Amino acid sequence: MAKPPSDREADLDRAPKWQPRYPGSGRLDGKVAIVTGGDSGIGRAVCALFAREGADIALVYHSNKDDAADTVAIVEAEGRRAIAIKADVGKHDAGERIVERTLDKLGRLDIVVNNAGEQHPAADIRDISAEQLQRTFATNIFGMFYLVQAALPHLGKGAAIVNCTSVTMYQGSQGLLDYSATKGAITAFTRSLSENLVGKGIRVNAVAPGPIWTPLNPRGGAPAKKVESFGEGTPMKRPGEPNEVAPAFLFLACDDSSYMSGQVLHPNGGTIVNG
């Protein structure tokens, strides 16, 4: 599973599996969802599955225009509308621009999926620069605050917010100190925001994937040898696929989980964690 020197999903030596694995059942009919990091990986699989279930999608991407265009085509092939919004979610004004564009083009907002993230392996904490630390926190957690702040006036009773945390929040990660710290913040944010919004009828939950085969891994600078054995440390002895994670996002976004808020789901290959 050696990694190529590319950040395009199509250029991975083994393409991630994003395709929905079952027919849709209308669980998101008439809904509009924002999905950050929707151009590739887990985000692409979420966009595809949400579209199959009847949602129109505003997918947010940072720089990979080709991957974003591919995901738009995937959504449209499901018979749904899609727009791609280029934005750096870690910038304070990005949330407002994303929401404004979504409302202008798609007319409403029902679901926010905070999935965008970045990671930068470092074996020694002293190798983490102030710039890297601030950048990782800006993308991974500050961007969630900015987008929710902008979206909240447009979310009504029955709306859902789903955040992407990580198994590293529960296990720790010796080589991803800043990344795993942001994931701990995301879990705390999820639980606290749930308490804050539950009275408004807005549910807030999270998904904590384990090792999933996406462009984030080679893009994040992991050594080739580590990428080759990626996921083998799980009880299932393999990495997960994006389309094995997307159903957890769907469950939390639709009425199937109407009695759940402040919770975290764990598609992680069988690793036992607390909470």
State the end-to-end CA separation.
31 Å
* Beta fraction: 5-15%
Number of strands: 7
CATH class: Alpha Beta
Q: Give the low-pLDDT segments.
A: 1-5
CATH topology: Rossmann fold
Number of helices: 9
Please tell me the total number of domains. 1
How much helical structure, as a percent, in the residues?
Answer: 25-40%
Which word captures the global form? Answer: globular
H-E order: EHEHEHEHEHHEHHHE
**Rg over C-alpha atoms, rounded to the nearest angstrom:** 17 Å
Spatial arrangement of strands, main beta sheet? 3-2-1-4-5-6-7
CATH architecture tag: 3-Layer(aba) Sandwich
Please state the structural category: alpha/beta
The CATH homology group name:
NAD(P)-binding Rossmann-like Domain
Average per-residue pLDDT, rounded, comes to: 92
The main sheet comes to: 7 strands, parallel
In short:
It is built from nine helices and seven strands, in the order E-H-E-H-E-H-E-H-E-H-H-E-H-H-H-E. With 275 residues, it is an alpha/beta fold.
Describe the structure.
Helices cover 39% and strands 12% of the residues. The longest helix is centred in the middle third of the chain and has 22 residues. Helix 4 links the parallel strand 4 and strand 5. It contains 9 helices and 7 strands. Helix 1 runs parallel beside helix 2 and helix 4 runs parallel beside helix 6. By secondary structure, it is an alpha/beta fold.
